[in-house]
Amino acid sequence: MRIILLGMPGAGKGTQAQIIEEELAIANVSTGAILREVSKSKSELGQKVQIYLNSGQLVPDEIIIEMLVERISKDDCNNGFILDGFPRNIEQAKSLDQAGVSIDLVIYLKILEEQIIDRMSGRRIHLPSGRSYHITFNPPKVDGKDDLTGEDLIHRSDDEPEVIKKRLEVYFNETEPMLDFYNNKDIKFYEIDASEPVKTVTEKIFKIIN
Ligand code: ADP
Ligand code: AMP
Question: Whole-angstrom Cα distance, residue 209 to residue 153?
Answer without folding.
Answer: 31
